[in-house]
Amino acid sequence: MEPAAAPSPSLPKSVKVPPLRIVDEVALDPQETAVIVVDMQNDFVKPGGKLVVPTAAQTIEPISRLLGRARSSGARVFYTKDTHYPGDPEFEIWGEHVLRGTWGWEIVEELAPREGDIVVEKTRYDGFYGTPLEDLLRVYGVRHVVVVGTVANICVLHTAASAALRWYRVVVPLDGISALNDFDYMAALRQIDFLYRGTLVKSVDGIKFEKPKKTEGETPIV
Fold first, then answer.
1. Range of the domain at 45
2. Phi, psi of 195 (to 5 degrees)
């Protein structure tokens, strides 16, 4: 007689998100800070794109405001540009998207890089993997990175994680990232907060490009 199969573990019907440490404001020295805009490309953001994130378009305006203040303060601006070539194995997971040289591969017009900004092409989720991003951040003396863009639990999270593992301070504004669904969005915030000790900020408007008045951590709110 065949032994009885072990019962499959039952999945929870709902998942409670642990409390997140979210601050109203954070001050960052612009000479030591870079904004990294992750994959705000037509295929992910615009109608007709091949892998559109439903809420990505809503982040364009907040990110634009953030970039305006970053540039005027002297903070560096970097873009990651997800880049694939015909036959990329990643297409087995997501389907064909952001083929190099296509409309879908281009950064959305509203956030087009300006003179002095740096665009880094990446072939995987992580903006540091196989790219010169770390070297460029070191060259410019960057210690703090503000990470915005899409997709929250994929390329944003992997890039933020890679920055944190290299001991950069990671700052993420809640209105500057987007995900395919609410679960993925909250999962990304939880990992950035708990695992990588990043700073979550309510809004891009709470990120001040100025020398901090004190060195102690900000008082968190939940």
1. 31-55+72-128
2. -80, -35
Pairing assessment for the beta strands 169-173 and 207-209 based on DSSP bridges: unpaired
Q: What's this model's pTM, rounded to 2 decimal places?
A: 0.91
| Active-site annotation holds for 81 | no
- Our answer to whether residue 122 is catalytic in this structure is yes
User: pLDDT (tens digit, 9 = 90+) per residue, 78-137?
Assistant: 999 999 999 999 999 999 999 999 999 999 999 999 999 999 999 999 999 999 999 999
Q: Has residue 60 been placed in a domain?
A: no
pLDDT higher than threshold 80 for residue 72 = yes
Residue 105 resides in a domain: yes
Catalytic entry in 43, 117, 122, 193: 122
The CA-CA-CA angle for residues 31, 36, 41, to 5°, reads 150
Residue 10 placed within a domain: no
Residue 148, φ and ψ in degrees, nearest 5: -135, 170
Indicate which residue of 39, 82, 88, 175 is catalytic. 39
Give yes or no: 208 in active site: no
Residue 12: its pLDDT value, please? 84
